[in-house]
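BUG: 3D viewer hangs when loading the predicted structure for this chain

Environment: internal workstation, default settings.
Expected: structure renders.
Actual: progress bar stalls at 90%.

Input used:
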Amino acid sequence: MSKAPKQSKTALEAVRAQITGCERCPRLRQHCLEVARVKKKEFRDWTYWGKPVPGFGDAKARVWIVGLAPAAHGANRTGRMFTGDKSGEWLYRALHENGFANQPQSVSSQDGMILKDVYISAAARCAPPDNKPTPEELANCESYLHEEARLLENVQIILALGKIAWDTVYRAFAKTQHGGGKKADFQHGGKTAIGNWKVQMSYHPSRQNTNTGRLTREMWDGIFKGVQKDLQN
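Structure tokens produced before the viewer hung:
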């Protein structure tokens, strides 16, 4: 039976509030605010979020997805992870097709998207210049992963989207959960474990990967078939 105490949901909301108000990384905060001020022509009528982006999803989740960072004109605009950009189109379509989301598209934080059995976080909670947070900035965000891990009591599988996400997850939890052993190298479709968690790795569904064919629909869909299989075993 899944655990979903109301206090865990409330505590997750408190963590989200902490993330939204975070000022630990001046470079990232300045960048996000500048992007929100200048905007993108396509979204000139939007009022950008421009703040750190909290996690999103089901407090009872068995699947925890960890990405890289909010996109400058995606989550930094909408205020919700993987919402309003091409990466999100790939992710939410796959989640919907596999029964984890109530709809296949996520365009704003008010579009009615509901996730079931999935929670989405990121290694960095602010949009970084050139999608490259520094090691120090990633370290500043690490405590939020720890807080989420403590409250997401039902997690069985972590899906790390990209090498930075995998490196961050390993660094955050190897000492507390791993119990020793050599770190697995990142590779698309790679599998390992951290403590009782199964970990799956995938290329990030960024334009850099999807437009070049490094990540195909078949490869991407295979990741979620693997997640479903691991949930059943």
